UniProtKB/TrEMBL annotation:
UniProt family annotation: Belongs to the aconitase/IPM isomerase family.
Protein name: Aconitate hydratase, mitochondrial-like protein
Cellular-component GO terms for this entry: cytosol; mitochondrion
Signal peptide: none
């Protein structure tokens, strides 16, 4: 309650002093108006303002900057006066946009309504993904969720319409996948009321998970405070190959840094190995940076991001990003607080856990480790998808394995569920026959929602408390999550 009252007071202060609206430089608008998304034609990308801020900070600090610094300092409220000391000072920032999932959006919207402001100050969106329980399959589970959560969905939809917030209805997809497909772009600063918001770092964005009160501040046009992050550099060399996937990069990093190793820091990937990773793969890596406590994670702008922007109908954004490329990659000679080196050519597929995401095991050793540790050897359920691993690339790999099994006359013995990250992914895997292969092998395609990942799973195959083994491509693995 204290934080609620505090937020409302700050909102009223903002109202009294004139809350800031979409902070778009008119100079830039006059030059090149590229909308932040196809749903927000009135809000333009402001690379010019970011460039101006970076130039001011660069003159003051007189040293090469990391990419994280460029994007974060590029969003300073007062670049000329702000005290900047990594790990010590607090920065006052102007994020470009806000994203909320349906569980956290309820309180955030109530608080925003209490402010009396007529509209949100920055583009914002609500995503209905957390309240859909997995039970039978996508269509039926979605229908039941709409009935059970009708009041919540109605509130969020009407509040969104009234205050100028985008609304993604249940079934449209998981917040982070929707952000990646529609709203993230290189250099944008986004805050989201969900811990895996950093997913957007795969598109060169600084996306940070926050509490609802912080989101309300930004929607009200109040500068947002963040302790000046340290920067951990992860230098990638070599190339990914074989069955090693982008997920193995972050499983390896988690094994090195542990669940607390990223606290107060942005993890910045760089080096020649970056180009061998797809944009959605980079998003997977950034998404799971939350498991090591990092403020967020980010990749430098490259041709993989450009291709992804073009394929998702945002070629105009990549064209303008090309013009500002120097601001979207780290400076030569920039200094990191810590550097980790990973040779992708030597990286092997990993499985992490159980009970903690930093317990990394090469797949080749997991059988022996399981026997030695006394874990149940029968895998009861395999779950793929979620916001972390439901890209077309991930689904394609799973479908390829399933096809090989089918060709040998094999079907799943264990339960197998598939959670597409968005309707776009679901429709694409349906169109290309992957969904059929996955269901032919015994998979159940669930709703485009969080489902089992958040514990929204009406599981019937084991009794509550019974020790059992499941394997997931999700980002979290804590005791009794499912
Ligand atoms: S799929 Fe899991 S990690 Fe992703 S937003 Fe939903 S609950 Fe969070």
């Amino acid at each position: 309650m204290a934080s609620y009252c505090f937020t409302v007071t700050r909102l009223r202060l903002a109202l009294g002093t004139g809350a800031r609206r979409f902070h778009v430089s008119t100079a830039f608008s006059a030059k090149a108006k590229v909308a932040m998304s196809r749903f927000e034609p009135g809000s333009s990308i402001n690379y010019e303002k970011m460039h101006e801020n970076i130039s001011i900070v660069r003159r003051r600090l007189n040293r090469p900057l990391t990419l994280s610094e460029k994007i974060v300092y590029g969003h300073l409220d007062d670049p000329a006066g702000q005290e900047i000391d990594r790990g010590r000072t607090y920065l006052r920032l102007r994020p470009d946009r806000v994203a909320m999932q349906d569980a956290t959006a309820q309180m955030a919207m109530l608080q925003f309504i209490s402010s009396g402001l007529p509209k949100v100050a920055v583009p914002s969106t609500i995503h209905c993904d957390h309240l859909i329980e997995a039970q039978i399959g996508g269509a039926q589970d979605l229908q039941r969720a709409k009935e059970v959560n009708q009041e919540v969905y109605n509130f969020l939809a009407t509040a969104a319409a009234k205050y100028g917030v985008g609304f993604w209805k249940p079934g449209s997809g998981i917040i982070h996948q929707i952000i990646l497909e529609n709203y993230a772009y290189p250099g944008v600063m986004l805050i989201g009321t969900d811990s895996h918001t950093p997913n957007g770092g795969g598109l060169g964005a600084i996306c940070i998970g926050v509490g609802g009160a912080d989101a309300v501040d930004v929607m009200a046009g109040i500068p947002w405070e963040l302790k000046c992050p340290k920067v951990i550099g992860v230098r990638l060399t070599g190339t990914l190959s074989g069955w090693t996937s982008p997920k193995d990069v972050i499983l390896k990093v988690a094994g090195i840094l542990t669940v607390k190793g990223g606290t107060g820091a942005i993890v910045e990937y760089h080096g020649p190995g970056v180009d061998s990773i797809s944009c959605t793969g980079m998003a997977t890596i950034c998404n799971m940076g939350a498991e090591i406590g990092a403020t967020t994670s980010v990749f430098p702008y490259n041709h993989r991001m450009k291709t992804y922007l073009e394929k998702t109908g945002r070629g105009e954004i990549s064209s303008v990003a090309d013009q500002f490329k120097d601001d979207l990659v780290p400076d030569e000679g920039c200094e990191y607080d810590q550097v980790i080196e990973i040779n992708l050519s030597e990286l092997k597929p990993h499985i992490n856990g159980p009970f903690t995401p930093d317990l990394a095991h090469p797949v080749s050793e997991i059988g022996a480790i399981a026997k030695k540790s006394g874990w149940p050897l029968e895998v009861k359920v395999g779950l793929i998808g979620s916001c972390t691993n439901s890209s077309y690339e991930d689904m394609g790999r799973a479908a390829s394995l399933a096809k090989q099994a089918l060709d040998k006359g094999l079907k799943c013995k264990a339960q197998f569920t598939v959670t597409p990250g968005s309707e776009q992914i679901r429709a694409t895997i349906e169109r290309d026959g992957y969904a059929k292969i996955l269901s032919d092998v015994g998979g159940i395609v669930l709703a485009n929602a969080c489902g089992p990942c958040i514990g929204q799973w009406d599981r019937k195959d084991v009794k509550k408390g019974e020790k059992n083994t499941i394997v997931t491509s999700f980002n979290r693995n804590f005791t009794a999550q499912e």
